[in-house]
Amino acid sequence: MKNIFQPAVTSEIIERINKLTPTTTQLWGKMNVAQMLAHCNVTYEMVYNDIHPKPGPIMRFILKKLVKSKVVNEKPYPKNNQTAPQFIIKGEKDFEKEKMRLIDYINQTQQLGENHFDGKESHSFGPLAKTEWNNMFYKHLDHHLAQFGA
């Protein structure tokens, strides 16, 4: 899997984001392009902003046992995969605002580097290795950019 912490990979992802327009249509799924960008921002909000409640001990145990391996492994997500409630985006979103937020988060993550994330506590899964962080970040972005043909 490509390493999102490498500047060339970060640039490639940002180039793909920049190919999107407010009228880009999805190839599958229910979200429009602005909602998809907002959806992708949730991952980074959980890292950088304290705006999503953390799961309780029982839910966190379930997430670690049943969901974590699917999120942090290298296997691509299937189309129309079920998502967690906090990732469901309803209502209209501002395309340009969500696009710029996502690009800023991606740049911030790359600048901090993989060593910053090695062993860092995840919102839902506990401590993750740098490769797990990479897989989670990269494959989520790659999945949704492919969803919109970018």
Strand order of the largest sheet: 1-2
The largest sheet, given as strand count, sense and whether it forms a barrel, is: 2 strands, antiparallel
| Assembly form of the protein | single chain
Mean pLDDT: 94
Total count of strands: 2
Determine the strand fraction and express it as a percent band. Answer: under 5%
Radius of gyration: 15 Å
Shape: globular
SSE class: mainly alpha
Helix % is 55-70%
- What is the number of helical segments per DSSP (H or I, 4+ residues)? 6
As residue ranges, the low-confidence spans are none
Could you state the order of secondary-structure elements as H and E?
Answer: HHHHHEEH
Distance, first to last CA: 18 Å
Could you explain the architecture of this structure?
The protein is mostly helical and 150 residues long. It has helices spanning 7-18, 33-48, 57-72, 95-112, 114-117, 130-147; strands at 121-122, 126-127. The chain has a two-stranded antiparallel ribbon. Helix 1 runs antiparallel to helix 4 and helix 2 runs parallel beside helix 4 (95-112). The mean pLDDT is 94.
Descriptive terms for the model:
globular, 150 residues, mainly alpha, 6 helices, two-stranded antiparallel ribbon
What would a concise description of this structure say?
This protein is mostly helical. The chain is 56% helix and 3% strand.
Present the secondary structure layout.
Elements: H1 7-18, H2 33-48, H3 57-72, H4 95-112, H5 114-117, E1 121-122, E2 126-127, H6 130-147
